[in-house]
Automatic annotation (TrEMBL):
PANTHER family: ABC TRANSPORTER PERMEASE
Membrane spanning stretches: 20-38, 124-144, 156-177, 184-202, 238-256, 265-285, 768-787
Alphabetized GO MF terms: ABC-type transporter activity
Protein name per UniProt: ABC-2 type transport system permease protein
InterPro entries: ABC_transp_unknown, Class_I_gatase-like
Gene Ontology terms: cellular component: plasma membrane
SUPFAM superfamilies given in the database record: Class I glutamine amidotransferase-like
Coiled-coil stretches: none
Pfam families named in the record: ABC2_membrane_2, ABC_transp_aux
ABC-type uncharacterised transport system domain boundaries: 476-720
Taxonomic placement: Bacteria, Pseudomonadati, Bacteroidota, Chitinophagia, Chitinophagales
Key words of the record: Membrane, Transmembrane, Transmembrane helix
Amino acid sequence: MKRILTIAKNELRNLFYTPVAWFTLIVFWWMCALFYTMRLARIGPRMYHAALEYPYLPFFNPGALTEGLITNPGGGMLANVLQYLYLFIPLLTMNTISREFNAGTHRLLYSSPLRMRELVAGKFLGVTVFNLLFILVLGAFMITAAFDIKSIEYPLLLSASLGVFLLLSAYAAIGFFASSLTRYPIVAAVISFSFLIILGSIDTLWQQYDFVRDLTSFLSLKSRTGRMLKGLITTKDIIYFLVIILMFVSFALFVLKDKVKQSPWYFKTGRFLTVFVLSLTAGYISSRQNAIGYLDVSAGKTNTLHPKTQQNLKLFDGAPMEVTLYTNLLTPEPNDRFAFIGLPANINTYLGMWEPYRRFKSDIQFKHVYYYAVPPGDSSQYKAFPGKSLKQIAGLVSRAMKIDSSLFIGPEEVRKIIDPGIFGYVRGSKISWKDSTVFINFFPSSTGSSVFTNVQLTSEPAFNAAFKRLAGEKMPHIGFITGELERSIVKTGEREYSWLNSLRPLGFDIDTLNLATENVPADMNILVLADPKRELSEEVVNKLHSYIDEGGNMFILGEPGKQYVLNPLLQKLGVNLMPGQLVRPSFHQTPDAVPYYESPAVYDLGEEYNLAAFRRLMKFTGHQIPSSDTQAALLFGATGLSYNKDSDFTATPLFPTIPERTWLKMGKLVQDSVPPVFNEQEGDQKENAYNTALQLTRKRNGKEQRIVIAGDADFVSGLRLGQNGRQDRVRAIFSWLNYNRYPAYTLFPFAEDNWLKMTPSWVKLERLIYLWIMPSLLMLLGIVILVRRKRR
């Protein structure tokens, strides 16, 4: 061991006395400083001034700055630096072995009692210790970040540092082996770059073969540190780096031994193959799902499935779950990034998406069905390939995509298995467990996401709903009343409600219901009456009264001018749509655009991320958010709601209008002329503020009956929600109406490291010090050491 340490010390000294080592350190520091201070300069002053104007923002900002500034694989300091890290290490290692040959000292080493493995271990240890200097550079910026960022995540920084150090060591092992192959440093560097390029792209080769795909996936260097940068340490990643390091260091040892003692070619080849096969075997076994261990060090455990999801997966203990992915070669959505996710070349990506779920249920079995089919009446493929049959078209498409056409079955064969219309003739999955089956057309998203970016495609809540369906649980049943020209969930017009079909994958069964010809089903949990245009018949009103008397929940939406349609029903609830229409003349908007703010009750409707953020804000500030700062949106064409305080229901305002300047305009509102003026003689009414939506509750039949009434039906329409971005409020209303059973929200804890503690002047000073002064000092130190060494 003493000899190894002596060699390591000499190797470290040699590195310090080379210009290349100082060059790489200085450039590494400068790159870290550039990528760290660049984002600081952009967001630091903005945060400082925003906090001065709105002191509550530090409690409200959702961003985790430890990850955002430093470890985020999508753009943090480390992610940017790691893109260029492979350029540094080959420059350091290219002389490690070749230096001995060029100086002639290799003969002395061979003739000394020093064992070759001690020489190799010592030299590699010296390079590894030098790599710690890169980690010290990162540590300097992490310590700086601890002063810059509020409540910084130290475990996340340690996890990221571990990932970077292992990556540096793997690069060093590859460079070490390359240096043993030649006495020319430049050639060694080129060989190192070649190995790194191969290991970075090997997961794209021979992906059509299952066994080979698993091996190449293990050998791939791509994104190996990504999980550790996010705070997830896995045994398969640790073992991967250890295997790569041991394999290439062993290769270097074999090369050096062969230069001392000649051996038969088959013996040399056998040693290399033995180490290579053992490495692949270790990697293959360690990457099997049952063999992987996980440690999530992130503050909110955001790399792990939400506890609610973990609990739902326990419902399927005792039998394996089967997931069958159906992939259509002739998908009508060619721009869909998930369209061909199940093809052989992408299977590892697909399985990686499922890994968070397989972590807690390792016996999930995957099957793949490849087919080609087009929707009935769709002639687009025939127009693109005139005169060709569908089978011939599939053959041409598969050939262009370099896929074996024999993998795909035709329309007749696939219909014997499943109706592709279930998925709209695009990709989709069937999840089976025992005798239960559910169909989904979405894929697992990354864990830790609390915002519905696209509820139809991704999110844990959608999978939780699918798991509950699979376990046999009854879903909330929503009935949209039709028959009197109500808003439609089928039509896609700007005034319609078709977007509400996105509630289906989140756990809702949705139907239409014509009360003139049908009764309310016993399993109906929520009725929606959205802007009927004609008077409700006595039979319909009686059915609705009976439903309400029995404690049924409802969502009722009206519009100005249609008060006579809904008021006969609403009077039973103690509510009335007020006559006329709310107006608020302004310079930029038409007078029917009425601004409103949200009462605190809105934030208790459901566990939507934004609503929970406002709850958190009110908790820390101790008061309701000022209405001027929380003007949620504009209502276009709304009327106020009045309610009887003596009613059985307890009424809570949801969307009051901004106080002052809003009034009820009687008669016809002319919008393309001069702004309307309040006229008491014409019956106009003016109050301080108006309620445009009410939340009603009462105890009925042993449960709390819940009803929401709105004086504007447009705020749920696709057009207005697209403008206002308030789909989460509507989802939260449906969540509240079904007692918050669904959506099965998976809200993770709010990030505490969400603000910078820096003034603009400190940002400028920090940028100056780290980007220019410190690299200059390092350069000066390196010059002094190198000059003194040369004089000696």
